[in-house]
Inverse folding.
């Protein structure tokens, strides 16, 4: 997918809270996307998408995640360590919290295939 047309949405402190993917060439209708690239709601007008992403913020970075088709070392709850155009880096949440070394995985950014799913709580 060509993400070059996505527009980053930032809050007042400069933190990127998501992206607006154009659904129509004039950006009249956009698909709000989280910082992971996951859809955030339904397509809407530009202003509504921007407001939605600002209200959501980046709380998903603090959530625990599961990795579809995970290797055994990463089958439990995962924490997001890093997000960049080079990928989304995740590792075992408990080991990360304890500052212990452990296996890491990198998922392509944006995660349009949905390899990361929220861990059940």
């Amino acid at each position: 997918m060509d993400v070059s047309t996505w527009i980053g949405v930032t809050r007042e402190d400069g933190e990127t809270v998501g992206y607006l993917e154009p659904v129509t060439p004039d950006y009249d209708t956009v698909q709000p996307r989280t910082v992971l690239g996951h859809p955030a709601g339904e397509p809407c007008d530009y202003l509504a998408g921007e407001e939605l992403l600002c209200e959501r913020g980046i709380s998903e970075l603090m959530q625990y995640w599961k990795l579809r088709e995970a290797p055994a070392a990463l089958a439990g709850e995962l924490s997001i360590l890093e997000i960049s155009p080079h990928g989304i880096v995740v590792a075992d949440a408990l080991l990360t919290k304890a500052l212990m070394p452990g296996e890491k995985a990198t998922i392509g950014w944006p995660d349009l295939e949905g390899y990361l799913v929220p861990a059940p709580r």
Observations:
- Helices lie at 46-56, 93-97.
- Residues 67 and 75 are 7 Å apart (CA to CA).
